[in-house]
Amino acid sequence: MTTASTDIDPRTRRLLEAPIVATLLRLAAPNVLVMVAQAAVGLIETYFVGKLGTDALAGMALVFPIVMLMQMTSAGAMGGGIASAVARALGARRGNDAQALVGHALVIALGFGLAFTLALLLGGRALYTAMGGSGAALEAALTYSHWVFAGAVLVWLFNSLAALIRGTGNMAVPANVTVVGVVFLVPLSPLLIFGWGPLPGMGIAGGAIALLVYYLVGSLALIAYLRSPRSLLGLHVAQWRLRWPLFRDILRIGLVGAVSTVATNCAIGITTALAGHFGSGAIAGYGTASRLEYLLVPLVFGLGAPLVAMVGTCIGAGQRERALRATWAGAAIAFALTELIGLTAALFPRPWLMLFGSDPAMLEAGTQYLRAVGPLYGFFGVGLVLYFASQGAGRLLWPVLGNLARLAVAGIGGWLALRWGGQLQHVFVAQGVALVVYGVVIASAIAGGAWFGPVGWPRSPRGLLARLQPAALSASSSSSSS
What we know:
Elements: H1 10-17, H2 20-50, H3 54-91, H4 95-130, H5 135-150, H6 152-167, H7 172-194, E1 195-196, E2 199-200, H8 204-226, H9 244-275, H10 280-316, H11 320-347, H12 349-353, H13 360-373, H14 377-393, H15 397-419, H16 424-447, H17 461-481
Antiparallel strand pairs: 1-2
Helix pairs in contact: 2-7, 2-8, 2-10, 3-4, 3-5, 3-6, 3-9, 3-10, 3-14, 4-5, 4-6, 4-9, 5-8, 6-8, 7-8, 9-10, 9-15, 9-16, 10-11, 10-13, 10-14, 11-13, 11-14, 13-16, 14-15, 14-16, 15-16
């Protein structure tokens, strides 16, 4: 028995029927804002910590890849799994499952948050030493790390709540909460770092505490929204009976995505260690310059999050061709944005680097990185947005393989550059080649039919209708059997 489309929520119907590019851009606009604002959180801290000296900046550069690993795992990998599961449940009209996914997502957030806390409190010193940290830079790294990861659960809670809301197609609420939080953080961070009046300055620890306050307040705001009647999902504990199939629906995407995220951050961490052979100034320069790459992650995530919702909803409704069209539209937009930023950074590196310090060694290393890698950022943007689209499709094998290929090229290439007597610039060239490999591997696989096999494009609306009807019937029967 077919159900009239009037029983579909308007947000879900837009994902299934509205023009693809216009819908993606409309949904991405607030989401790009939220992600850039969230990236600004790290930049704000870096700016103020840079005032404490090169050792503090180098210490923060050591910790930053691990903080971003947690951010990208909670918001991108597991957050993508949460959003994808919610979108596919809503697309297949499994409203009860969508509600139950709230409780499952929060349990996952609690578990992973505690795991990060234990791992970094116990193993932080060994990790940062292996990454090239020593002396005052290592002590600064440990101070910042201990504070940040003591509150890891708050980061996971915030990003999981935001992912639940984005999975319903609502990008505005997480955007508003994040932007307001950043406005709140701008005065709080220097206040806690440097002190004011009777309030003593806490140094680099103050930046970490300000960050945790931001995530705490943001989590409370997102919880308040979920408890309101405006939300498609709610905090109805009675509907949270934990079931392995729903955990699996999130984890089969989130865990595979986490492998991809770990590979990305390992590539950054390995390059940080390789830069450590050239001193603390090189670590600070690379860490500062590579923050621009990390800024691209939330920028592309701003486009990728609605792409997860659109692809997941279309696949839940059996609309494979529309899912693929949305994917390639997202890839084209991501390439244009990231390539423009990369070329600008390569042509004018010093204005970006001077925001965070003026140490000559830092500026020289950062300039070498941006000139070698910046012109290839477009490939990074393509690979990353296709990773998000693959989350929506529930097909993450090739994004993981692409990231592992990037890690291999970056690590082995950088090591060989040093072994053969190369300079820091040659280490960075290997990172640029790795980005090209990353983007080309994933795009080639999806174009070759990695998701569903070759999908031909119907030449007429009647052909499209004929193709979608069997898929829709199949999705309907599978949802009924579940």
